[in-house]
Amino acid sequence: MGSRSKTDLAYIAGFLDGDGSLMIQLKKRSDSKKGVRIMFTICFYQDTRHEKPLHWIKSVLGIGYLSRRNDGMSELRINGYDQVENILTDLLPFIRFKKKQAEILLDSVKLIKSNKDKKSLKKLVDNIVAIQQENYATRKKRSKSELLSLLGLTP
Prior knowledge:
By secondary structure, this protein is α+β, with helices and mostly antiparallel strands. It has a single domain, classed as Homing endonucleases (Endonuclease I-creI), CATH 3.10.28.
């Protein structure tokens, strides 16, 4: 990641506040111990006809992958513990409307990087639910009990 001006970071944070999302996802995977992969994601969305800002954001941040969806939208996704942590740490002073989600996501990254015991995973589930409650959702999300079950944390 190259050097980024405060102006660039403020612009990107504003874009995230308006046309972005912060997510913690649990993806089923057969190649992991628990059969689940924990994914941390920052995503920026834009109408494909006007996707040029997404290319600029990718260039400034030096990371991410851009894809065009079938519904006429483009998205820039940034995944990974370290990448999400570094970018959100830089953007946090400028984020206004999604500050709570950003703080929860940063807390979750630190939690998972330091420990993946049952207590940490239960706290992660609480954080996922908290972010879901803050986010606008167009489709049903997993409930707390479904998340706990997916991580093997139910009796």
